[in-house]
UniProtKB/TrEMBL annotation:
CDD domains: ABC_UvrA_II. ATP binds at residues 45-52, 663-670. GO terms for cellular component: cytoplasm; excinuclease repair complex. InterPro entries: ABC_transporter-like_ATP-bd (IPR003439), ABC_transporter-like_CS (IPR017871), ATP_grasp_subdomain_1 (IPR013815), P-loop_NTPase (IPR027417), UvrA (IPR004602), UvrA_DNA-bd (IPR041552), UvrA_inter (IPR041102). The UvrABC repair system catalyzes the recognition and processing of DNA lesions. UvrA is an ATPase and a DNA-binding protein. A damage recognition complex composed of 2 UvrA and 2 UvrB subunits scans DNA for abnormalities. When the presence of a lesion has been verified by UvrB, the UvrA molecules dissociate. The keyword Protein transport does not apply. This is UvrABC system protein A. Residues 630-959 form the ABC transporter domain. The keyword Endoplasmic reticulum does not apply. Belongs to the ABC transporter superfamily. UvrA family. GO terms for molecular function: ATP binding; ATP hydrolysis activity; DNA binding; excinuclease ABC activity; zinc ion binding. It is found in: Cytoplasm.
Amino acid sequence: MNDSTEGKYLHAALGQRISIRGARTHNLKNVDLDLPRYQLVVITGLSGSGKSSLAFDTLYAEGQRRYVESLSAYARQFLQLMDKPDVDVIEGLSPAISIEQKATSHNPRSTVGTVTEIHDYLRLLYARAGTPYCPVHEIPLQSQTVSQMVDAVLALPEDTRLMILAPVARDRKGEFTELFAEMQGQGYVRFRVAGEIYEFDNLPKLKKTEKHDIDVVIDRLKVKPDIQQRLAESFEAALRLADSRAVAMEMDSGKEHLFNAKFACPICHYSLAELEPRLFSFNSPVGACPSCDGIGTMEFFDPQRVVAFPELSLAGGAIKGWDRRNPYYFSMIESMGKHYKFDVDTAFEKLPANVRKALLQGSGEEEVKFTYALESGPSAGRKVNKKHPFEGILPNMERRYRETDSAAVREELARYRSLQPCPTCEGTRLRSEARHVRLGEGPQGRAIYEIGRMTLRDSQAWFEQLALKGAKAEIADKVVREIGARLKFLNDVGLNYLSLDRSAETLSGGEAQRIRLASQIGSGLTGVMYVLDEPSIGLHQRDNDRLIGTLQHLRDLGNSVLVVEHDEDMIRAADYVVDMGPGAGIHGGQVVAQGTPAEVLADPASLTGRYMSGALQIPVPKQRNHLGQQPDPQVIKIVGARGNNLKDVTVEVPVGLFTCVTGVSGSGKSTLVNDTLYTAVARELYRAHEEPAPHDAIEGIEHFDKVINVDQSPIGRTPRSNPATYTGLFTPIRELMAETTIAKERGYGPGRFSFNVAGGRCEACQGDGVVKVEMHFLPDVYVPCDVCRGQRYNRETLEVLWKGRNIAQILDMTVEDAYEFLKPVPSIARKLQTLTEVGLSYIKLGQAATTLSGGEAQRVKLALELSKRDTGRTLYILDEPTTGLHFADIDLLLKVLHQLRDAGNTIVVIEHNLDVIKTADWVIDMGPEGGDGGGTLVLAGTPEELAKHPGSHTGRYLQRLL
């Protein structure tokens, strides 16, 4: 970018810039700022410095509010209205669209296909250009019009004697007296029953219990050129009587010609009404699988959960509730043992397969002799014998689960259930008819669910080579182009490893955000302001370049693109950069530097600029601890991991070191670490119920007494949760208040100082501090409570002071201020110290959990773990902990993680950030690609070894830093 272009922004006419004056939202300190329109603007700065307050809570909120207020009052009631931001004036705003990192949907019916609307196009395509097949014979179904049927008959040799029949019953039981009478009433007097022709008066008496084939004789004629009209009328009559079917039988040879106005199989007459888009929707009763209602999974009693200890015998407790401790059920097991000749003291896993099947699924028709002891009445204790089939342990649990009225029994049984693919539709969500419609010719043809299971990369390739013929090609052309364009955008934002049938609730925040981004590009809007929140989250450096290209494409369409971002490549690619700071929380909220990337880099006041120019940097450790250095290295070994796309991976994780798991998006990192390692260790140490992903073994769990997964899920879903309640600070603070003289005189205990229970809280707002006022066509307004003025407590509680401050004032302090104030109390000071160490000195103790970002929530959890007493035998697992963190925050976080490691703990981090990878002791690189092209181990070694590895995408980018 040359100097003349750089200078043009600030001299631009007002129409070419967004002008903000006096922005005071959250911690912003009266910010005045001019941003260029129709450019890619990156807002960066420390966590908590006010980036989101400026981008989302000020610019987006005002852009959205103005647009919504321009609509009618009727339309406004259906839209969520934003609060008016605290700002004097904003000029030059466009309608705003925000693309945040929220999980798309918790609806199990939402998939990548439905969210991107590709599924809607696919349904239309299959309904208009698909070919239905017979589920049994795998041959295309054919449908014919009456004129096609007439032409087929006229093609027979002249003078062929024909009988036109209506097949009214095929393979059906009954006497059919009513049917015959009804047909006679319509003027039909001849019938074909079991291949023989009968007049109405001498019809045979049919047996009710036997199956019969019955045809009504519609007409008898000879093939002649002039019978066209008569044939057409006969066929129409036959189709009307026999559910769109007709038969033309050659009377001399007995040869039959079958016709069907619906799609039908010429062999078994399996037929299908006309194809329509609803048939391919699993959200419509027309297309959904009738067993699972289109969800694709069903809850079943899981044999692996029911047989919790297969190494034990049935008598010794292999199956809880069916051992010696339960005489009623155990007597059944003993009877089964006598019948099938097995010993109840043999380990369950060593019993023959047929015995295990009979025990779990039941004995079917086979009767077993059971001995029961009568429990009550005059004959109590007497034994009686009964012969009947054995119900089976799984069907028994299923029946009890269905029939019980007890919530406790249902809850206990639910522990043995797990979600499994629906056996009817095999997890495809669709009914049989929809599963047997294919698009494409011959072996290239695919059913709609097969397209759904492909990765997006493979789907795009398949549509590019799709060749349809004739009218179908013409009909499909536009729809295929639309699908292809959407798939291309999804692949361009680095999502090529996802599939269209992937459930939306399993997507990470970054993936969900990039899917919405691709949908926006597909919509092709111009003149809009897009506000994005860290779109590079969860992306490998390799995919980052494509993402930047996508954002530039969005800008080139004629839009203003505002991005809150810490990624160095993104900042360098921006047209304009705003650096917020200088600190976090109350120490932030100011614009420290602004201008082109080059100007910000040269500005000594900009912390971001100093990290990017190399003046400040996160150091590479002078010496690494690694496996090779230890005389007898301890490892935890994952053997044969096969979950999702993992291909039988065996890998060792060093105990007591800091290990980074890297690889492109979709290469199998989360499956290996979260779904396999964490879940298996948690199951072993805590008897957790969650099933780990398929693997052969995990060796070395004995090195740990705790496993902690510090993820980015919210620390609470209501405004009543806050950092003080989550970290356990609130309890000692309440106890401290209860120890004061005035509290003791009044008899107040710690409960008095909780805003969650009646007593000490303000009852007017029930301890919320705000009252909701419903405004109907305007957004609901939350106003501070008149009674407590937003302090949450009643007057008597607020009269209790410790060192001159009441409970509400303490909760309103930042962590930093609270540390200075509460230093004399060691139990509180230690927790506040750890919150400062993870870089959260700026958050308030009573700040609502709902206002914390994912990265902040993760660090609150990390602080809680750090404040606990440490045994030095903990396995810590972190999934992308640098999300939302500035270079300076990452430096702080790494110090904390290295401190944990130095205490003897094992740290496993999934991460794309190169600054974290370069400081790790050990790196496990997965790949080489995402989806099907991934799932293998590229390398396990030091960062230096990875940087030299030619097959590693991560190594290629790491070379620059080492």
